[in-house]
Amino acid sequence: GQQLNQSPQSMFIQEGEDVSMNCTSSSIFNTWLWYKQEPGEGPVLLIALYKAGELTSNGRLTAQFGITRKDSFLNISASIPSDVGIYFCAGPISGNTGKLIFGQGTTLQVKP
Amino acid sequence: DTEVTQTPKHLVMGMTNKKSLKCEQHMGHRAMYWYKQKAKKPPELMFVYSYEKLSINESVPSRFSPECPNSSLLNLHLHALQPEDSALYLCASSQRARGVVSAGELFFGEGSRLTVL
Questions:
Q1: pLDDT at A97
Q2: Cα dist. A104→A76, B28, B40, B117 in Å?
C-alpha cells in the first residue's frame, strides 16, 4: 500500500538556524500537505501543494512538491522557539476516498 | 483558533462507563472524520462521514460508535473501553462537493484526551 517515509525523525537545533525535512513515497501523490502539531493540540495545516514542481511559502516556511510527485520537502528559515512541535507530511490515498496517509513525523526542538 | 471544536478536552473514564465525544464545525464542510492518535505517532483514521453518511469504517471495534446527527455535528460514543484505548481523539472536516473529495485538506480540532482506567 501507499506509505510516506519522513525524515529526519527528530531534530535539535539552535535558534536562528534553518531546518529542512522531507517526505518520500514509492507511490505518486497528487497533493502534498504539511501539518504542524504542538503538544496537546491538533495538527494545523501549514502548506498545501497541488502541482508537481510547485513551490509555496507561508512566512518563514517553504514547501515544494517534487517533480516526480513522489516527494516533498519543507524548509523553515531562521527558526524560533515557537517552531517547536511535530511536523507531519500527508497525502490523500488514491481512489477519492477522502483518506489521508501521514508520514511518521519530524520532531523539532529549538534551543534558544 | 481552530474552526473545529471538540468537547470535552479531557475525559477520564472507567472500563464500564459510557461516554461521548463531540465535534462541531461551521465551515460548511460535508466530510467529517474521527482519528485516533497515540503519543508521538501520526493520526490513525477511524471513521469518515460524507454527507452525514458513514462512508469509511477502518475496522474499528464496536465499542466505538460514531454518529453524525447533521452536517455540522459528529459524535463518538464510547462504551466498555480498554486501557489501550487511551489516546488523543481528533475530529477533522474537509470540503466535499457533489461527492468529489477536495484535494484532501483536513482541518483538525484540538482533540479530546481520553484516559481509560
A1: 66
A2: 19, 30, 8, 28
A40-54, A82-96, B69-83: least confidently modelled range: A82-96
Where is pLDDT greater, at A98 or B6?
B6
**Segment 4-63 of chain B within 8 Å of chain A by CB:** 4, 6, 31, 33, 40-43, 45, 48, 50, 55-56
- Across the range B9-31, mean pLDDT stands at 93
Owner of C-alpha cell 534558544? A112
Tell me what the pLDDT averaged over chain B comes to: 90
**Helix, strand, coil % (nearest 5) of chain B?**
5, 60, 40
CA–CA separation, B72 vs A10, rounded Å? 37
CB A42 within 8 A of CB B2: yes
The residue among B110, B112, B113, B114 with the most chain A CBs within 10 A of its CB, best to mutate, is: B110
Q: Give yes or no for a contact between A44 and A58, defined as CB atoms under 8 angstroms apart.
A: no
Q: Which three cell numbers stand for residue B20?
A: 461521548
Residues 6+ apart with CB under 8 A from A66: A52, A53, A72, A73
Does the distance separating the beta carbons of B106 and A45 come in below 8 Å? yes
Q: How many angstroms separate the CA atoms of B68 and B47, rounded?
A: 11
Measured CA angle at B104 (ends A31, A6), to 5 deg: 55
The amino acid sitting at B61 is P
